[in-house]
Specification:
Layout (H helix, E strand, L loop, with lengths): L1 E2 L8 E2 L1 E2 L16 E2 L3 H4 L1 E12 L6 E3 L7 E7 L2 E8 L3 E12 L2 E5 L7 E7 L3 E11 L8 E11 L1
Antiparallel strand pairs: 1-2, 3-11, 4-11, 5-6, 5-7, 5-13, 7-8, 8-9, 9-10, 10-11, 11-12, 12-13
Length: 157
């Protein structure tokens, strides 16, 4: 999952649909059961972690919440989502679209973007974790995303 409209451009993206559901770490982030029921995900969530790790240089990391002082919220209802973020000194944006839970993956799409993307999902007792190894972040500030792994951890509002 990429936050675009921040350091990374103007949209939101994650794992292309051609990657198998749950690939890229569906079981790697957070506690809980893989393949959570979609109804259990409904509600509003606040990120406590929105972390990127460079795949080319794993020592390069950035966490939008803890390193940049940003905020990210996610609202999930029957088939629709709204993702909103604000990063001090960079800006904010919100987007919405459609989502579905398939196996251990949350598949999502939004108007104006062709295709569906997915991230691994785990629902714990008190948190929701999303992850993929096929994301990106502009670590060096040159306007181009570098390949990155992504982990997002949310608590229910």
């Amino acid at each position: 999952m990429r936050l675009r409209g921040s350091r990374a451009g103007t949209g939101f993206s994650g794992t292309p649909r051609d990657q198998p559901p749950g690939a890229g770490g569906a079981g790697a982030a957070g506690g809980g059961q893989p393949g959570a029921e979609a109804d259990a995900l409904h509600g509003s969530w606040a990120a406590t972690r929105w972390h990127y790790t460079s795949r080319d240089s794993p020592a390069r990391t950035v966490d939008v919440i803890t390193d940049l002082g940003g905020s990210v919220t996610l609202s999930l209802s029957a088939g629709t989502f709204i993702l909103a973020w604000e990063i001090p000194g960079i800006g904010g944006q919100s987007i919405g679209g459609r989502w579905a839970l398939r196996g251990g993956a949350l598949e999502y799409s939004w108007p104006g973007v062709e295709g569906t993307e997915s991230v691994g999902v785990r629902l714990g007792w008190h948190e929701l974790a999303l992850s993929t190894e096929r994301s990106g972040w502009d670590f060096d500030g040159d306007g181009e995303d570098e390949p990155a792994g992504f982990v997002g951890v949310f608590v229910r509002l």
